[in-house]
Fold these 4 entries.
Entry 1:
Amino acid sequence: MSFSSRLKAELCAAPQGKMCCVTAELYGVFLMGQTWNAELLRVVTTHPDLPARLRALMLRRLGFEFDEAGGHGGRSLVIHDAKKLDAVFGAFGLERIAGQSIHLNHAALEDNCCRSAFCRGVFLSGGSMTDPEKKYHLEILTPHRHLTRELIPVLHEYGFEPKQTSRGGVYGLIFQSSESIEDFLTFMGAPLASLELMQIKQMKEVRNNVNRQVNCETRNFVRTLDAAARQIDGFGRLRRSREWDGLPEPLKAAALARLEAPDASLSELAETLGIGRSALNHRFRKLEALNGVCSPSRPH
């Protein structure tokens, strides 16, 4: 089961709360549904738990169920009975008028608990979330541009600042900050999903830190090997050159130490010679400079 599916399963199992919360959650579901007008209400979902959740909410608040439940590729929940539609519109303080767009009625969201339940309904109907192992991305989509604009003040009131987007006639709000997503999940009533997201983020940070450390150590190791190979080649040529006999003994000792221990680190060589690492590095730089100007090689 995907993270988004587990999230919706947790939301569907959340307590219904007071009657005002039941009303608000249904309102959110219907607003983000596929169709809601004077002739038809249709909610389409592929999540197996949402139909039962909606049935329970509707029976409690409205006293009836959908007229139809079925369809291919998911569940299409439909109300077309005129009396039921009248009751639905009335529950949210709206009038059933042909051809009129459905707008958000803020009077139906009086308390904090109502707004939390409303956002839960909005997400259950129109929301989805990408696997946080891949990226942090939660979106709420609707075919109605005006609804995204009307949702923003509700979210801003609680510190949420999603970005607006549109593609192919679909409009939406997007959360891309892990912290804001965690807070939004908790606000909707999914603390377990929020905790799981925090744990995933922590594990990703640990893996990233380990990878950075391994990459850094690998780069240092490669640089050390490159430097050692360059020194072995250069010091070997220097030893066969005419300049070798005139070198100070400390430089000769440093060159020989490298030639005799090609795999040793700078620290290990410095310890062998009884000097500091910086002192040995200084000698190596001198040897490399001398090697660059040494005379042609001679038998040694």
Entry 2:
Amino acid sequence: MRFNTICVIGMGYIGLPTASIFASNGVQVTGIDINPDIIEGLQAGKIHIFEPGLRGLVLDAVNSGRLKISSEVNPADAFIIAVPTPFYENKNADLRAVVQASESILPHLQPGNLVILESTSPPRTTIDIVSPILEKSGLKAGDDFLLAYSPERVLPGRILRELVENPRVIGGVDLRSAEAGRDLYRQFVKGDIILTDATTAEMVKLMENTSRDINIAIANEFSRLAEAFDVDIWEAINIANLHPRVDILRPGVGVGGHCISVDPWFLVEAAPDAAQLIKTARLVNDGQPAFVAEKINQISGGLRGKQIAFLGLTFKPNVDDLRESPAVELAHHLRHSGARVTAYEPFNKDRQLPGINLTDTLEAALKNAHLIVLGVAHNQFKDLDPIKIRQMTDAVQVYDSVRAWDKAAWEGAGFAFFGLARKY
């Protein structure tokens, strides 16, 4: 099948790059968002997401006329739903944006159209939620229109490359729908395209991120045990990983982002009795910021009244995304322990966090600090010269929660150095 017009609903971390790549391949694309600031910004050439290469791609697509930004869904050959799917406080999936996006397509759905859900969702969302909404049109999924699920499987910081090169999974409500999805994405995807059914594709995405979450959880739990046994966890992991069938990941502050820290809960919600290990791993990782905060409280002799220079708030290095960030959780735990937290996040200077004083410069964060805490291993933080930092602050203690700094170098500069389960 040939798709000449596409409507992409959701101009976030996946929708905007996807729409721009389609447009750069000659497809006429309408990008939809309900946030007026995002719409006005994109129409004016302002990109609200930091992702290498994205700004130029978006500007080229908009200037060519092949990418139009709107608040209203238009008729199209294919519709892609790429809206957020966070969770409620009880960890159940919040699918309101998926429902709203599906309902916005309904008045424009025509026979032969293809609808693709890309948003990460609990199993059976495509067939139990999206399909019934669209069938209110009087058209039947698989017979009159085509419906499929195709999860994004990309790494922030490498989104544009991985959208093109990574294998793409497409699960249809029937084979014809999956094949149509293959035809749609083949316009730019160079990796393998694997066809399956919609629910399997939904579960594949959740399995990928859940397996990562479980592996990180055991690394974080090992770090807690290492603290209890006075063992350097990093040395222990390096030795253990010499075994040809062992690959222990790095411990840290926890797990963040909109995928690994969220997706496992969708499986727990869908089948709680069958997801005991998954739930336990989530609780371990969700509890890691509090564990690290308590270690910092102990080494500082109590945090009440002390000022902390907190470096890095995003969920991973060298991105601007603060969603579900364990570094943010750590900063809040430190504040609840009585500390005044002054944070510097070079990739997201405009974000406001209750109770956290965000600064525009490293120098401002270090001023009057008693303690420096490294929350995220941004490249510019990893490259800091401890001798120069010593000249910029009265702080005498440093806590590296992500093992990005050389202990000997910081101690040589006059700091008392501490880190997560570190002796060396």
Entry 3:
Amino acid sequence: MKEIKVGLFTVLALACLAYMTMRVTADNAMFGKFVRYKTLVNDAEGLFKKSLIRVAGIEAGYVEDIQLADDKALVTFVIQKRLKVTPDSIIKVKSVGFLGDRYIDLYLGNPNLERLPKNSIIKVDEGGGLDKVTESAGNSLESLQEIMEKMKEAIQNDQTDNALRDIVKDMRTTMQALAKMTAGNQQAISSIVKNLDVATRGMGQQFDTNNPNSVLNKISELSDVIANFKEASNSIKEIMAHINAGQGTVGKFLKDEETENQITDTIANVNKLVNRINSIEADLSIYSGYNNDHGSYTEFGMDLYPTPERFYRIGVAVSDFGPESKTETRTKTTVAGTTTVVDKEEIDQNSLLVNAQIGRNFHNFGVRAGLIETTGGAGVDYHLKKLGTKLSADIFDFGNSNGANLRISSDVRVWNVVYGRATLEDTLNDSRSFTGSVGLRFSDEDLASFLGLFAR
């Protein structure tokens, strides 16, 4: 009865977690209806399955599949049906952050046009970044060249002489006007001249070497500072000359071709490492259920995909029917000359089990080998991707007195990230039993969306 209560409590907790996750995951698109479209891009690097589709910066869909079509990438994606995609809609592939993740930005067209049929190909605008900068710089140079041609034409055309003659006439008229203004303002001009005379005398005193407070005597006090500055400037020139000649530690560091090649190789290796890390995908799962013979069973696992063909599976499981170890003890007790011997046997179950396997995918099939519940074993999987179903067979625990355990299981997608699992244990033995489980499975996009909720 205790195990049933624990199992029911675990199922209820998983259901609550599934509800919260479905409210925020990238797959919350499952709550509405979607329309499937396609597009052809020249470079799909950084795009993966479940990469986001955004409209006006808001999540509106996700990538379903990416395939090679001749020398381009055919990207299949779904978009919310409530958004009207028209024939003049345009797709742009944009980047998020410095290293790298990319998403598809969909610009909806004229809403008065008819809706584009499903599975239609939407045209893509891949121009951007350095291409736009180069185009803008080219346009600027063309504009500058046009201005220079206009200036050259203005100076060298047949009307240049007439234009210069007009300028001279205008200057003569201006000078005549100034002469008339001077003749009528002699007194004011005399006052200005007197003020200028006073100012000139003051400036003369400031430049008089016999005046201890003159500017020239004050500047002489700065001669030491100027000399030190010149000396420092000469030292800097010498240092830069040595560096340019490849002398000294800094000069050798900057001029040595081997050092330069090592730095270039290091940067290239760092870029390769970052690209590999960005390309790793991960699937996280947790299942909990009950076995009709042994009791509760809970499993936590993670699949890491450095490439679509290779994967690593790690995780732990907590089970009431793990490997057993026996301990026998004998106790002797003497009372009133009578000796009593008591033999006691203790059975300890190792309920914490470890999974660590390496595998490879071949189309819809996957094979793996390694530790299965702390014992050596191997397994094979068959994926029915359209149905969200996986069929698996594992054989392990070869040291069991009843023989190896052949486990057959089936994972079925119930809704969004919620899955159900049916497992047949010890299929080849008379002690076979059945385990029913429910669980949650998360992709990279699901985890990023779920964690992003707490970062807001």
Entry 4:
Amino acid sequence: MRFMPILLGTCAAALLAGQALAETTLTIATVNNGDMIRMQKLTDDFTAKHPDIKVEWVTMEENVLRQKVTTDIATKGGQYDIMTIGTYEVPIWAKQGWLVPLESLGADYDVDDLLPAIRGGLTVEDKLYAAPFYGESSMVMYRTDLFEKAGLDMPDAPSWDFVAEAARKITDKDNEVYGICLRGKAGWGENMAFLTATANSFGARWFDENWQPQFDQPEWKQTLQFYVDLMEDAGPPGASSNGFNENLALFQTGKCGMWIDATVAASFVTNPDESQVADKVGFALAPDNGLGKRGNWLWAWSLAVPAGSEKTEAAQEFISWATGKDYAKLVAAKEGWANVPPGTRTSLYENPMYQEAAPFAEMTLESIKAADPKHPTVDPVPYVGVQFVAIPEFQGLGTAVGQQFSAALAGQVSVDQALKNAQTLTEREMKRSGYIK
């Protein structure tokens, strides 16, 4: 009898261990974009299939998310088992050993179905380090009724001059209709995503081939002056505080004649349950300036497993569910094919049901294919990335420059001063980091 407490203790420990195994909890850090909010609502489908795995979501605004996950992974904090990261972070973090290669997504995942442009940005040395839940470029979304009223026809491939002229023509500030809405909120992935892609089409570069900053060159002056003048004439008030979500809300409530932003927004602006102008939206490629480059970017919001997680197997189970073909069918069954996360799989764009339901499908795919991260600019550069520069320093640099350009938009500093400040702070950081002397 004296051995009984020990046996009971052993059994209890085994039972507790079994319960712990049965209650694996995944903590997922994610962005507060529509597709991820939708995914959270559908998570019951995953937990029903995997009763041993619980999911906890930590949802943040874009700039906050980037700061939190970067700090956590760099310090090996271990707060998250799955992180929502983008095309910028994946190759840098994978090379630093911060991410787990996704090699357990299951036999039916079909990696080869991922769009080559999207998959390529998430692959390092032939290993996939993040799985895309949606991919995007950027394009023009515009109000067909306002264009018709103004006697304007939007070309499939407009120029910046046409866009600027049209924006000013359809602006009616007395009735809170603004010709164009563009990102103004400071952040490397907010206003600088838009402005860097736009600058490419104006012939500007972040750096020349010797890593010398280029904000003191006329192409950047032309880009920023064009943007500030256009937003002053035809943009909404308070534009320096507007990012993706703020401009989405403005467009959906009928206050924007045009919006140049992520192709993923197309399903939201054409959804009659969310958009007051759903039946009055047309699409066009991002504008160009006649120099051979359009102002469109390439991005994928993706799910990755930090190397510090102790739940890599369960995390890959979730990622396989969230980014696989069956998830698209789940969204289609619940909310219609038009609301399936776009831009990741070839099979989606070959699906006649999606083609019929999504009038923006062809333009989205064309925009994604048109982006060229390896040759993003008119003149040669030493970096890859369309709306970002794929170096670790860019996250801080992009946000610092974005703050200068947001201040110029708000009228707090002149365009010339903003560019001068951008040049100075970028030179300082590039010297400190050893790129230039």
